[in-house]
């Protein structure tokens, strides 16, 4: 059985306060995009994970897919599975690839073994694996707050635009990016700001990680500038970086950016 686990981008991201549990409260809008990993599960003698495609730093035995399997195995009598992951979503890019793999594996196991879990129950499992993991269960645009796992509806539809994503050859650690942030409350909620016309997002929406991550990796700031230079209506870093997305009115080709970066068109 197969699942296609997609990436997300963050339309605005405010880190509002440090929590007593060491995590941070934030405000963001998660938006699913069409860059996909492929996950296959088949019955096997023992549970293993095999990775193809892009390299994932660290040991395969630490892969979040195995953590997701073990989490459900604690509560259900699951037979051993071979998990094959074809990794296409850039890693350490602020695209939530690992979180998406875990959420889609939960949905896959729920379907294959008819576990009878509803959306809320699957979200509860997912949030144990990562702060932005629960979003990928419903996988629709949402306003997120708390650790990034409390959702409310938001009316954002970018289907009439071209979204382009540029991944510089830089890996940003999420934990490091959070440690560089000084949290602050925004004067206006992102939930209201996101309802502004798209042309006004440039002067009103912000990703709080950009200040510190751009200082450490100026090449990411250069990519964002280049995307505005090419005519983007809105461009921003996604999550804790390093990828930068841009929203264009029409189809574009960016050969200059392709020289040093991986460019994904029409995601
Ligand atoms: C920054 C965001 C924005 O969407 O995305 P990415 O850049 O990772 O894609 C998310 O908050 C990333 O969520 P996720 O990647 O699931 O984080 P986790 O694995 O749970 O946590 C990794 C580390 O990030 C920090 N962390 C994460 C989430 C949060 N709300 N506050 C935090 O302080 C903690 O130091 C934690 O140990
Ligand atoms: N299935 C997976 N896909 C990607 N990364 C994974 C996976 N399992 C574990 N990881 C670990 O999680 C880290 C963060 O991965 P990822 O989710 O791509 O980043 P981001 O937080 O930027 O969205 C990686 O550096 C890797 O060590």
UniProtKB/TrEMBL annotation:
Catalytic activity reported: 4-CDP-2-C-methyl-D-erythritol + ATP = 4-CDP-2-C-methyl-D-erythritol 2-phosphate + ADP + H(+)
Pfam families per record: GHMP_kinases_C, GHMP_kinases_N
Binding site for ATP: 90-100
Single annotated GO MF: 4-(cytidine 5'-diphospho)-2-C-methyl-D-erythritol kinase activity
The keyword Transferase belongs to this UniProt entry's keyword annotation: yes
GHMP kinase C-terminal domain mapped to chain residues: 202-254
Associated pathway: Isoprenoid biosynthesis; isopentenyl diphosphate biosynthesis via DXP pathway; isopentenyl diphosphate from 1-deoxy-D-xylulose 5-phosphate: step 3/6
Keywords, sorted A to Z: ATP-binding, Isoprene biosynthesis, Kinase, Nucleotide-binding, Transferase
GHMP kinase N-terminal domain segment(s): 63-137
Cited InterPro entries: GHMP_kinase_C_dom (IPR013750), GHMP_kinase_C_sf (IPR036554), GHMP_kinase_N_dom (IPR006204), IspE (IPR004424), Ribosomal_Su5_D2-typ_SF (IPR020568), Ribsml_uS5_D2-typ_fold_subgr (IPR014721)
EC number: 2.7.1.148
Record: active site: 8, 132
Function: Catalyzes the phosphorylation of the position 2 hydroxy group of 4-diphosphocytidyl-2C-methyl-D-erythritol.
Family according to the record: Belongs to the GHMP kinase family. IspE subfamily.
Name assigned to this protein: 4-diphosphocytidyl-2-C-methyl-D-erythritol kinase
Source organism: Pedobacter panaciterrae
């Amino acid at each position: 059985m197969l699942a296609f686990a997609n990436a997300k981008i963050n339309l605005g991201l405010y880190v509002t306060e440090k929590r007593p549990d060491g995590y941070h409260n934030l405000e963001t809008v998660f938006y699913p995009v069409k860059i996909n990993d492929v996950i296959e599960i088949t019955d096997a003698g023992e549970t293993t994970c095999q990775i193809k495609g892009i390299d994932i730093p660290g040991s395969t035995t630490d892969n979040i897919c195995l953590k997701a399997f073990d989490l459900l195995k604690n509560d259900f009598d699951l037979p051993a599975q071979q998990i094959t992951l074809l990794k296409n979503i850039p890693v350490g890019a602020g695209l939530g690839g690992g979180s998406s793999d875990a959420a889609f594996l939960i949905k896959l196991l729920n379907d294959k073994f008819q576990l009878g879990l509803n959306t809320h129950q699957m979200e509860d499992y997912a949030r144990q694996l990562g702060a932005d993991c629960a979003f990928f269960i419903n996988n629709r645009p949402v306003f997120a707050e708390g650790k990034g796992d409390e959702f409310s509806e938001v009316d954002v539809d970018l289907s009439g635009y071209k979204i382009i994503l540029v991944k510089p050859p830089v890996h940003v650690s999420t934990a490091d990016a959070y440690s560089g942030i000084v949290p602050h409350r925004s004067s206006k909620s992102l939930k209201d700001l996101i309802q502004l016309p798209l042309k006004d997002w440039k002067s009103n929406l912000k990703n709080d990680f950009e200040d510190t991550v751009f200082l450490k990796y100026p090449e990411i700031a250069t990519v964002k500038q280049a995307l505005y230079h090419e005519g983007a209506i809105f461009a921003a870093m996604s999550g804790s970086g390093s990828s930068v997305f841009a929203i264009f009115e029409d189809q574009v080709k960016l050969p200059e950016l392709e020289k040093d970066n991986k460019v994904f068109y029409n995601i």
